[in-house]
Design goal:
113 residues, alpha+beta, two-stranded antiparallel sheet, 3 helices, 2 strands, 12% strand
């Protein structure tokens, strides 16, 4: 198939899909957008989303071993965690987790229609 014919076919299929969506949604497309059913590196999702989401986790303080005490300090509180025994660290949400959340959302909305 020549490139022009291919592009025309893709355009026709896309227009048909939009018409079909409008028919099944009463014509209201104001709050709808088309998204891929799966996030991949190939469709650009990984580059767009990786590093965009973070979560906070509690980490035991390495200086006091998590007990919050420093026997060498005057007030016995760990200098690194100020006696808390831990600190909060921000970490990126993993790509695997992002894909799983997205897949669950796709499944939810697919079943809702």
């Amino acid at each position: 198939m020549m490139e022009q014919e291919h592009n025309s076919l893709v355009k026709s299929i896309g227009q048909f899909y939009i018409v079909l969506l409008r028919m099944t949604n009463g014509g209201d497309m104001t709050d709808k957008i088309l998204l891929p059913t799966e996030l991949t590196a190939e469709n650009g999702a990984k580059a767009a989303l990786i590093g965009e989401f973070v979560e906070e986790i509690n980490v035991d303080c390495a200086e006091c071993g998590g007990d919050g005490e420093d026997p060498m300090a005057e007030d016995l509180r760990c200098w690194a965690c100020d006696g808390a025994g831990m600190y909060v660290r921000s970490v990126d949400v993993s790509w695997t987790t992002i894909k799983a959340i997205y897949a669950a959302a796709v499944e939810h909305f697919k079943n809702a229609t």
